[in-house]
Amino acid sequence: MTTRPGLFVSFEGIDGSGKSTQARRLADHLRTEGREVVLTREPGGSAGAEEIRALVLQGEPDRWSAETELLLFTAARRDHLERTIRPALARGAIVICDRFADSTRMYQGLSRGDLRAAVDTLHALMIGVEPDLTLLIDMDPAAALTRAKARATAEERFEDFGLPLQERMRAGFLALARDFPDRITVIDGNRAPDAVAKDIADTLKAHT
Ligand SMILES: Nc1ncnc2c1ncn2[C@@H]1O[C@H](COP(=O)(O)OP(=O)(O)OP(=O)(O)O)[C@@H](O)[C@H]1O
Ligand SMILES: [Mg+2]
Fold first, then answer.
1. How far, in whole angstroms, is CA 50 from its chain's centroid?
2. Which residue among 22, 131, 178, 197 is least enclosed by CB atoms within 10 Å?
3. What per-residue confidence (pLDDT) applies to 208?
């Protein structure tokens, strides 16, 4: 077997935009091409980070202050990076991560006061890596929220914030894509899953 370098890919976008669906499909696609794929998610992706996931995604919307929440997300990401992402990249796997630091830049950085500077400082201090490629699935927030609400789960702490937040997050993600054009590719999510998946597979080809 030839050794190929690892590749770190993240999926970003508002709730219900199809990140988890497309992350799974991309993982399946790359595995059929013989690549080792580690499909993971945030918050979570390692044993410790999954415990933190329950703390941040369940319960009342005001359970944590914005600052405490940011620290919990950063702690979870650090553990995920140490235990899951770095080891996988080191052995040449493709890591596909369902949300990564861009979600924190948006949800913790923008949604409850302006914590973006704190988010970036903590990221530089404790995480310090970005994905090689970020696929931003962009879509209409009302349609995305309808999709997201159709799934009943206990992890609704953020979905409870509703449509106005989704509108702001969409605009924020698109602004981020303009700030990091080399890393972030915008994918039109207002289409059937097959069409979205093909677009994503084509984008990956340029990187593998
Ligand atoms: N292209 C699509 N067209 C129609 N429905 C879709 C499409 N992609 C995903 N869905 C459905 O919409 C719902 C949300 O999709 P998914 O869970 O992949 O979104 P997500 O971005 O991961 O959401 P969240 O941020 O809440 O985790 C699911 O029920 C999924 O089956
Ligand atoms: Mg999801």
1. 15
2. 178
3. 78
- 3-class DSSP assignment, residue 7: strand
Q: Give me the torsion for CA of 153, 158, 162, 168, rounded to 10°.
A: -140
Number of C-beta neighbours around residue 68 at 10 A: 12
Q: Which residue lies with its CA nearest to atom 3 of ligand 1?
A: 192
Going from the N-terminus, what domains does the chain have, and what CATH number goes with each?
7-207 (3.40.50.300)
8 A C-beta contact, residue 14 and residue 139: yes
CA 147–ligand 1 middle distance (angstroms): 6
- Beta strand 37-41 pairing with 7-12: unpaired
Q: Which residues line ligand 1 (CB under 6 A)?
A: 13, 15-21, 147-148, 150-151, 191-193, 196
Name the closest-CA residue to atom 14, ligand 1. Answer: 16
Can you give the pLDDT at residue 153? 72
Q: What is the mean pLDDT of each run of 10 residues along the chain (208 residues)?
A: 79 96 98 97 97 94 92 98 98 98 94 89 98 98 87 68 87 97 98 98 92
**Reported pTM:** 0.95
The pLDDT score that the predictor gives to residue 114 is: 86
pLDDT value, residue 3: 58
Backbone angles phi, psi at 145, to 5 degrees: -70, -40
Task: Give the total residue count for the chain.
Answer: 208
| Short-list 26, 64, 24, 56, CA closest to 41 | 24
Nearest atom within ligand 1 for CA of residue 189: 1
DSSP letters, 105-121, are IIIIHHTTS--HHHHHH
